[in-house]
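Hallway conversation turned thread

IA: we were arguing at lunch whether anyone had actually written out UDP-N-acetylmuramate:L-alanyl-gamma-D-glutamyl-meso-diaminopimelate ligase end to end. Turns out nobody had. So, for the record, here is the sequence (477 residues) and right after it the structure tokens. Reply here if something looks off.
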Amino acid sequence: MQKKHIHLIGICGTAMASLAGLLQLKGHRVTGSDQAAYPPMSNLLRALNIHVAEPFSEENLKPHPDLVIVGNAMSRGNLELEYVLDQRIPFTSLAELIHSEFLAGRESLVVAGTHGKTTTTSMLAWIYEVASRTKPELAPSFLIGGVAENFGTSFHLRETRPFILEGDEYDTAFFDKGPKFMHYFPDALILTHVEFDHADIYRDLDQVKTAFKRLVNLVPRRGRVVAYDGAPIVSECVSKAFCNVERYGFGSDSEWRVSDLRFRDGRSSWKVFREGSIWAELELPMAGEHNALNATAAAALASGQGIETAAIQEALASFESVKRRLEVRAVVDGVTIIDDFAHHPTAIRETLKALRGAYPEARLWAVLEPRSNTLRRNVFERELIESLSLADRVVLAGVFKQESIPEGERLHPESVVKGLNLQGKSAALFANADAIVAAIAPELRAGDVVAILSNGGFDDIYEKLPQRLEQRALVRS
């Protein structure tokens, strides 16, 4: 592609901001716009010196860019999108541009699944990075839906062959309603979990399964699929693969079997058996069964692609997680505040289980903003109650933009609070972040752990709560 002026509508999405960085590395002039920017991607774009115009406006497209990337959150009616269509400015999607601009001649390594894909992609990229210290040809390019702490970024571009991608099952654009991962044509694939999610674009679980089956069908015969063995739905999705399929998990028949999993001081250690014989002992500076499984999946794929076991062990032992995945945002007056992206009942459950393991003596608070298109609906109300019940105290915010969800489909957080109260759990509902901070700050005590769960900015609660606790400590002193 010749050097161009490329404008991204919806640039602050995790994948869009990463694409902006990749395009800048290719020498293009990159601009973008969004309705609201919040960390970590706003910080990433600022560090790249990529200007973000707010809000959307036709003026952001004057003079006309050579190409416009339309984010998948953009719908007809958006001011800039309508101007692009009226003026016939060339446009495409993120996924299609990645395919055409970055994947030709590369080895495409894709991590997909309803849960765990961002962390697993980050682990796989770090394994390749560590391995490249002795084998430079393994240095990876990557595109991750979050900021990988080991790299301090969510993207990288090299001239080498490996390109590691987080394969998102969400739709591609307003003009392409298929999943983004269908554009990535994996040479090797990790498939973590498959569950119903994205209720705004998938009618039911069968549609979700069809999408993942189609992804598996793209892997060539010479390729590999590494798939979780603990879910019948995953088994169904890989059952007709034309390539070799290797399973990982706790199952006795797994090719990559996790055994002797132990947690201590926020770290995990376990053994991996390969076809019945011990293959390696792995260690990870993170708690949580789900993180051990994610690491095993990354290790299995990397090993099958020729990376030495010692490099895999070294990489996992030094893995530094991902922004907004069990991220400690502050420790103030003895209270630990955790930021986590969990926005599905299964992810919420695994996050709270991991925090129980990491902080066994703590009083655990779950502060949830129902924000994702699935969580704002009532499809998982019962499962949400079960997941949140793992916390000692539960606080819910009002549903984000509730008015945009049809009345009969809306989640009613009052019902979730009632269900938790009936189980004897302390749960309460507040309208917004300010009301939550005002209510819980006086109740927090040294030793408490507060897990703030949202896939958005949550009205800056991550800054507001520590500030209130700091003020409280000053008054006391």
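OS: looked through it. Residues 289-304 form the longest helix (16 residues).
IA: good, adding that to the notes. The chain has a mean pLDDT of 91.
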